[in-house]
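Q: I'm writing up a methods section and want to include an example of the input and output format. Could you take the sequence below and give the corresponding predicted structure tokens, formatted cleanly so I can copy it straight into the document?
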Amino acid sequence: MIRFKADLKRIYFSTVWLIGLLIFSNPLKVKAQDTIVNSPEYIIITDTIKTFDTILVIDTLIRPKQIIKIDTIRMIQAVDSTADDTRSGKHVTEGKLNGNIGLTVNQLAITHWAAGGESNASGKVTADFNYTLDKKKFKYVTSGIFAYGISSYAKSRRVEKTEDRFEISMTMSNNNQKHLTFTSIATLKTQFTNGYSYPNDSVPISSFFAPAYLTLSVGYTYTISNNLSFFFSPAAGKMTFVLRQSLADQGAFGVEAGYWNVISGDSIWVPGKNFLGELGINILVKYTQDFTPNISMFSTLNCYNNYLDPNKSNRWNIDVDWETGLKMTVSKRISTIVNIHIIYDDNIKFAVTEFEGGIEVTKHRPILQFKESLGITFLYKFAN
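A: Here is the clean output for your methods example:
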């Protein structure tokens, strides 16, 4: 009896001890998972599993068994193709090509029109491209602008050239992602076919590579914003080629004209030079702006000054080439383009008739050149 009471007492205290141990230790308590906030750069897959299993035996407590699976975190990071490859540590070189091919047409039909006029049809084909090669230290950009337009008149059955443009530009700049970058630019400008001073279409006043302008500039580009940049070159070489000898003999476009050299009573014809070299300052300002998704504009101002001109009075003459265009998109393939082009070059002279003392005198002097065009253009865009 006494032994039974002792066993009962021992069981009682053991039970109380186990209950207290369960209450205060709480092995079945599961820790709450921390909150993870998703970031746009990460995908977090949460699959944490925690299980506890407890086996109780009289007078014996087996320690809980835990199974824990750690959360899996996968990171997705966009890789810039023009930046260094994070895995290999090598720069990824990428070439980008884009451009436009356009056709502008215009037609006018007149029959017995009292106000006058002549039926005509005109058209212009334009093409431009831009190829960018982005390397680790330098960025190379090659661009071209080509245009050719004609106008046909029905009554007189004549055809006149209204547009002729051939321009290629190559730019190399330091790829340092800063506002001020070292830049070198090479630009070639000429035309496709002969040019005439209409209605005289028998004597050409210009032709392919007569003239042609090759400009080599080395300097710095200051990028003010994504829309505006400023290039300055203190040492820019400008070379003028006049390969049509008849124009070179006249001294057209600034080259040295041909002349008769009289030696001992004999006259020897010295042909005109086909080349003119200049060294000066070149300034290039570029501006682009998108006003709306359908309206955009560009403006390019190029100024050149030859500070080594043999004629000191001409050293402050500045050659200006300023072009501005406004594009209004009607649809995916149709656009209205307004283009204004202004050129002033001291070496390009025009015949001007003046009266001096009642006598008509013809002189040749530089004049401000102005061209404006407006038309509906059918565009085809391409890109790699």
